[in-house]
Amino acid sequence: MKVLIIDDNPETAYPLSTYLNSEGIESNITNDPIDGLKKIKEGDYDTVLVDISMPEFSGINIIHTLGIEKKLEDQKVIIFSANSFTYDEIPQLLQKESLQVNVTNPIDKNKVLTSITC
């Protein structure tokens, strides 16, 4: 299994990546959301973990771009954020009723692992 973590905060991304790797899940990190979008388009990831609140180009922008380019349908996306969004608010926020996301705040590594493997 291959996971991409897109988060502008290395203090969040690197411990999560280390944990996932210790659980046998290959994880790659980018702290640049534009680079993350490029990696999604070029890579073959089973799951993408996206911080929804990043400056300049957010997780919402990434998801909207993937939706416009019809690359979202087959991509499992797990959204996390320092903001307090509820599960029900995310589809409204993204205006994508079909998007399946899991919100973890603060990041619960075990919940993320369960979300990735289910």
Structural class: alpha/beta
Classified by CATH, the class is Alpha Beta
H/E topology pattern: EHEHEHEHEH
The strands making up the biggest β-sheet line up spatially as: 2-1-3-4-5
CATH architectural label: 3-Layer(aba) Sandwich
- CATH overall fold name: Rossmann fold
Bulk shape:
globular
Count of folded domains = 1
Describe the structure.
The protein has 118 residues and is an alpha/beta fold. It has one domain (2-117): Rossmann fold (3-Layer(aba) Sandwich). 41% of the residues lie in helices and 19% in strands. The protein has five helices and five strands; from the N terminus they run βαβαβαβαβα. It starts with a strand and ends with a helix.
Fill in the keyword field for this structure.
118 residues, alpha/beta, Rossmann fold, 5-stranded parallel β-sheet, 5 helices, 5 strands
Compact overview of the structure:
With 118 residues, the protein is of the alpha/beta class.
